[in-house]
Specification:
The protein is mostly beta strands and 284 residues long. The chain has helices at 2-16, 86-91, 154-157, 260-264; strands at residues 69-77, 100-111, 114-121, 126-135, 144-153, 159-172, 177-187, 199-211, 215-222, 224-226, 234-243, 246-253, 274-283.
């Protein structure tokens, strides 16, 4: 009995000792510091001055990262905005009720600085575009420069081929936008015409300017310097809104051309203006 009482007293003393008070568990070790990995993809960061691979129809010098995709939908409504009076235009919802030339474009980065694009329009025109980055603008170089090669064919690329070779020179204005000059040499701009010139020289001029945080004003003009006169020189203006990897653009043009070959032939141009839009998506 003495032993039991002594043992109980000893346990009470030990329990009251501060040294044996309950100690909280140690804090978990901090997570290891993970250094950023250079994956060799310098083209991934967003470029505010060049948010998309096209202006309205003309290409830009924005590089597509290798192994990544881009997609674009274009609509060019065929109703002329000047047709009829204002009541007629309003009843047609300012042209949106009319038929349209619809284009679907898929773009892929083959390797850094090299991209390919396939565009098909609903009039069964197919355009293949290859674009190579030659120079990139940096602190010691005032411009960017790309080389492009484009071939277009009608009736699902089975007839009336047109080839375009050109350069795309760009000057980024910090993060506020960019301006472009694009000499374009077009072979067989009117392949179905036996009396047309075999070639034409065009000069693409364009700009995109940032308004606010994510809205841009866009314009492009393509005068014809030589070759058969096919009508009005291509002219187009747009307002564009960017959200994440998406861009939505409302444009007006003096034709419903989408491809470079269509621009060379003033496709749908009749001295009238047409409304349209582009929706673009970058998958990276």
């Amino acid at each position: 009995m003495v032993t039991v009482r002594a043992l109980a007293a000893l346990l009470c003393v030990l329990a009251a000792s501060p040294a044996l008070a309950q100690v909280p568990p140690p804090a978990p070790p901090p997570p290891p510091v993970v250094e950023p990995v250079d994956r060799g993809e310098p083209d991934l960061p967003f470029v505010p001055a060049e948010p998309d691979f096209t202006l309205i129809n003309l290409p830009t010098t924005l590089r597509l990262p290798a192994g990544r995709w881009g997609f674009r939908v274009s609509h060019r409504f065929t109703r002329a905005l000047g047709q009829g009076d204002f009541g007629d235009l309003a009843s047609d919802f300012f042209g949106f009720d009319s038929g349209a030339i619809v284009g679907l474009e898929l773009r892929y980065g083959i390797r850094p600085g090299l991209q390919l694009a396939l565009l098909r329009t609903s009039d069964r025109t197919i355009q293949f575009l290859g674009q190579l980055s030659v120079l990139q603008q940096d602190a010691g170089r005032p411009i960017g420069l790309d080389a492009i090669a484009v071939v277009q064919g009608f009736d699902n690329f089975t007839e009336d081929y047109t080839t375009t070779l050109g350069l795309v020179a760009s000057r980024r204005l910090a993060d506020r936008g960019a301006v472009y000059v694009q000499p374009l040499f077009v072979l067989e701009p009117l392949p179905e015409s036996a009396t047309a010139d075999d070639s034409a020289l065009l000069l693409g001029i364009g700009a995109r300017v940032l308004l606010g945080k994510s809205t841009y004003a866009v314009g492009e003009y393509v005068p014809r310097l030589s070759g058969t006169d096919t009508g009005d020189n291509h002219l187009s203006f747009a307002i564009e809104r960017r959200k994440g990897g998406h861009s939505f653009q409302i444009n007006v043009s003096n034709s419903f051309a989408t491809t470079l070959g269509q621009i060379a032939r003033s496709y749908g141009g009749s001295g009238e203006w047409h409304i349209g839009f582009n929706i673009a998506r970058k998958f990276y």
